[in-house]
Amino acid sequence: MPHFHHAASGSSQAVLFTLILVFTALVYLKGWLSLRSNALKAPTGWQVLSSLVGLFLIWAAVASPIAALDHELLTVHMLQHLLLMTLAPPLICLGAPVQPLLHGLPRGFVENLLVPLRQSQTAEMIAKTLANPKFALLAASATLVGWHIPTLFTLGMKSVGWHLFEHLSFLVTGLLFWLPVVRPSAGASRQDLSMILYLFFATLPCDILSGVLVFSDRVSYPMYFSSSHLLGFSPLADQQCAAALMWTCVTIVYLVAGAILTMRILSPRALSQDAFVEPRSRATEIAHRVPQTLEAV
Fold first, then answer.
1. How far is CA 271 from CA 134, 246, 258, 259, in A?
2. pLDDT tens-digit profile of 91-144?
3. Interacting residues of 193 by C-beta distance below 8 A, sequence separation 6+
4. Cα-based distances in Å from 220 to 86, 145, 225
5. I want to staple 283 with a disulfide (CB 3.0 to 4.6 A). Which of 127, 165, 189, 252 is the partner?
């Protein structure tokens, strides 16, 4: 009965998540078309594709048939984390989603909620904190390590609410982490260099966690003893495969990002593109642009 209840709950959640992501994609596309039709600066075609692929990866993590197997294999559970934290966020950030989403939302909603919100000093202070790379690095590292502590891991797997919060925390901290990496500096290669160091320090918690799980001779998450052992994996082999997947994927993605930053340092004029720039402060950007862009909607 518990397994049936989990399956039924997972199915309803999958439908809800699918609808939310489809709605988000439609709002983004509507806003993008509005920007283009009003001759305003809009993301390029490949940036739009990047955002849509990012949303698809979120769907794959939380609403696809693969997501239903996270209680059966730790490897699938780890794949969800990678999609939500390492792969989808940089693609979404590359899509410069703020302005398209603002233009895609109903004008009354933006005028009555977002414009007053931008005038709040508390909102501005929170935005500045969230945009701080030090905070983003700490939050992402704490999320990664914290949810892999056996006690918290079990809590997340046994409670629907905590499981949802776990997924949300991976996605939000992933977006915060990748924003300063994707957004180019204001012409200073020194910031690109700092981002390379930022990526290096971010790999350390992952390397330590992966190493512990790969080389451990015992199963860290006993709940997988009672799984159906899909693909013939023993719980220990599943754990080692999951850790190796995380280790490999994070290393490759961070190396690619570091290589792009290095190329931008060596050839700034050839590789810096203003179209990729995301605002340093979300609240500040909204404060400056919302009144102007609403007039063109």
1. 26, 29, 14, 12
2. 999 998 988 988 888 877 766 777 677 667 787 888 888 888 999 999 999 999
3. 261, 265
4. 23, 13, 10
5. 127
14/63 Cα distance (integer angstroms):
4
Q: Decide if 75 contacts 240 (C-beta within 8 A).
A: no
**Tokens standing for 8?**
């039924």
Other Cβ atoms closer than 10 A to 40 = 15
Nearest CA-CA partner of 152 in 215, 86, 60, 223:
223
- Sequence-separated (6 or more) residues with CB below 8 Å from residue 199: 181, 254, 257, 258, 261
- The domain ranges of the chain are 2-296
* DSSP H or E segment with residue 140: helix 133-146
Q: How far apart are CA 62 and CA 9, in angstroms?
A: 13
Cβ within 8 Å of residue 249, ≥6 positions away: 82, 86, 87
Tokens 């992501």 label which residue? 21
**Reduced to 3 DSSP states, what percent helix, strand and coil does the chain have, rounded to the nearest 5?**
80, 0, 20
Exposed/middle/buried for 292, CB within 10 Å: 0-12, 13-18, 19+? Answer: exposed
Degrees (nearest 5) of the Cα angle 58, 64, 66?
105
d(CA 17, CA 160): 14
Two tokens, residue 182 = 């994707």
CA distance 212 to 201: 18
CB 65 within 8 A of CB 10: no
This prediction's pTM: 0.82
